[in-house]
Amino acid sequence: MTDGTVIACLYLAPWPVTLVARQHRHVPVAVLSGGNRRVIAATPDALAAGVLPGMRESAAYSRCPELHAEVVSGPVAQAAWKELLELLYAKFSDRVEGVDGIAYLRLHATAAQELATALHAPVGVASSKEVALLAALRAQAGEVRGVSAEQGGQAEKAFLHLTPLAHLWALGLHARQLEHLRFLGITGLADLWAWSAAQRESFLGVDTGRRLNRFLRGERTVQVSRYVPGQVIGASLEVDAPLEEPAQLEAALGDLLPTVWENLRGRTAAYLTVQAQTVAGEFSSTRNLKWPLDEAGLLRRAVATLMDTPALPLGIDRLTVQVSGLQKPSRMVGLWAGVAELDVTRDLLDRFPGALVRVNWLDPFAYATDARYAWVDWQTGERRSTALTPKPPFASPRKQREKAPERVLAFFEGRL
Amino acid sequence: MRAVQQEITVQTREGRPVSVTWQGRRYPVLRLLDSWRYGGRWWLGESPRDCYLVLCGALTAELHHEASPPGTWWLARIQD
C-alpha cells in the first residue's frame, strides 16, 4: 500500500448476466447463447430455481416460469463494460483496469464503501489484486470486505486460510483441477497450504502449481495500470516566442479553453491535463476537476495545474490542454445501459436530423392502419405524411376572399 | 404486417379484387381472407373505404378501395 490507497476489486461477473439483471430487477435472469439459445449463465435465484448452464431456453422456462432470458451479444456487453470503466475512471480513480466483469481500482479505503453502495456490488479491498478478488468473492452485494496486510500479514493469512475450494479459480485453478481436489477431500486453500511446493506442482501441473506456489510464498500483483480514457478533448497552441510570463500564459490558455469548452457541450470532465513543451523537455500535470464546471474556473484550474510544473520559467513553446473522464452531469451511477443509447441517439440526430421518428397514436381501434397511428419527426414533432394521409381541404385565394364577408357577418351575429 | 400505403392497380370482377399489380409484378388473388368497411375520417375529408385482406401466393396484402370516385386502390399493408 502506498499513500493510503488500497486496491479494490469490483466483482460484477458474469458480466452479461449482471448487465441484464440490472435492467430486470426482482426477477430471475439468464443469458442465452445467440445460436441455439441455450443458457450460458444465470443469476443465483435462477440457479436456485433449477436453471442450469447448458439448458435449452424452453427447459429453463419450464423450471422457472418467471425467468427473464435474453441474448446479450458480445459487442453490447463490451460497450457497456467500457462505459462502466469510463464511469469508474471519471468518478473514483484514474487507475482502473478490468475485464469480463472484474474491475480493479486503486483508491482510498473510504471511497471503496462509496463504490460498493453506488453500484450495489461486492467489493474486496486489499493490498494486492489477488487478495482483493478473493475478498470480493466473499462479500455481499453493496458490502466491502477488507483484508489488512498489516501486523506482518497475520490477518491476511488468517483470511486466506478460510478460502473455500470454489474460490480458487481466482488463483488460476481450472474447474477440472478443482473437481480433482474435491475428490481428494480438499475443502479450501488451507489444505493446499499444508502440501509441499513440489506436491502442489506435481498435482496441479507446472503452470498452475508454480503460480499458486508464488502466491503462497507472498508474491502479489500490486500494480493497477493507469486507465487510458476512451474520449479525450484537447486543444493545443504553438507560439513563436516562448511564453515566460504568467500573463502571457493566461492569455494563451484563454485562447485554448473556449475550444475545449465548446467541445464539452455541457458535459463535465473528471481530469484536466496540461502539457507544456519547453527547451528542457515536456512537462505534464494533471488535476481533478470538480463539478459544476464553468469556463472561468477551468481557466484558473488550468493555470494552477501548469504552475505545478517548472515549465513557465523555462519558456513554453507549445501548450496543450486536455480534459478526460467525460460524463453527463446529474446522471445516476446505476444507469450504464441507458447512457450509451442516449449518446447514440444524439450522435445520429447530429448527422442525420431526419433519421428518427416517433409514433403518434391517433385511434388504436380504427379499421385502417393509417388512421391508427402516424409517424412524427423525433425532434420537431412534425407529421410524416404518406400517400394516404388526408390533405387539408384546399381553398383558392378567390374563394377565401368571397367567404370573408360571410365570416365577418357570422362573427357579429354570434355564430362564430 | 408492414405498412406500405401506396396506390396500386387492382383488377376486379363484380367489385372484388382478382389480381394485384405491384412493383411490376402481377399477383393473382388466390383467396379472400377477410373484408370490411372503414367509415373514414369524414371530418378530414376522407371517403369511406372497402378493405380486403387477400392471399396472393407468397404475398398477403391488405387492399383498400375508396368508395367515392375515382375509386383509388391502395396497398395498405403486406405480410412481412
> Helicity level of chain B, as a percent range?
under 10%
Contiguous runs where pLDDT drops below 50 for at least 5 residues of chain A: 330-338
- Quaternary state, please? heterodimer
How many distinct beta strands of chain B? 8
Shape of chain A: flat
Overall geometry of chain B comes to globular
Largest interface: A-B, 13 and 21 residues
Helices, strands, pairings?
The complex is a heterodimer of chains A (416) and B (80).
Chain A: E1 5-11, H1 15-23, E2 29-32, E3 39-42, H2 44-48, H3 57-63, E4 68-71, H4 74-91, E5 96-99, E6 102-108, H5 109-119, E7 123-126, H6 129-137, E8 144-146, H7 154-161, H8 175-184, H9 189-193, H10 197-204, H11 206-217, E9 232-243, H12 246-264, E10 271-278, E11 281-288, H13 295-307, H14 311-314, E12 316-324, H15 336-351, E13 357-361, H16 369-372, E14 373-377, H17 397-412
Parallel strand pairs in A: 2-4, 7-8
Antiparallel strand pairs in A: 1-6, 1-7, 2-3, 5-6, 9-12, 10-11, 10-12, 13-14
Helix pairs in contact in A: 4-15, 10-11, 12-13
Chain B: E1 2-7, E2 9-13, E3 16-22, E4 25-28, E5 31-38, E6 49-56, E7 59-66, E8 73-78
Antiparallel strand pairs in B: 1-8, 2-3, 3-4, 5-6, 6-7, 7-8
Describe, in plain words, how this protein is organized in 3D.
The complex is a heterodimer of chains A (416) and B (80). Chain A is α+β, with helices and mostly antiparallel strands. Chain A has helices spanning 15-23, 44-48, 57-63, 74-91, 109-119, 129-137, 154-161, 175-184, 189-193, 197-204, 206-217, 246-264, 295-307, 311-314, 336-351, 369-372, 397-412, and strands at 5-11, 29-32, 39-42, 68-71, 96-99, 102-108, 123-126, 144-146, 232-243, 271-278, 281-288, 316-324, 357-361, 373-377. Chain A is flat. The termini of chain A are far apart. Mean pLDDT of chain A is 86; it is low at 330-338. Chain B has 80 residues and is mainly beta. Chain B has a 5-stranded antiparallel sheet, with no helix packed on it. In chain B, a hairpin with a 2-residue loop joins strand 2 (9-13) and strand 3. The termini of chain B are close together. Chains A and B meet through helix 16 of A and strand 1, strand 5 and strand 8 of B.
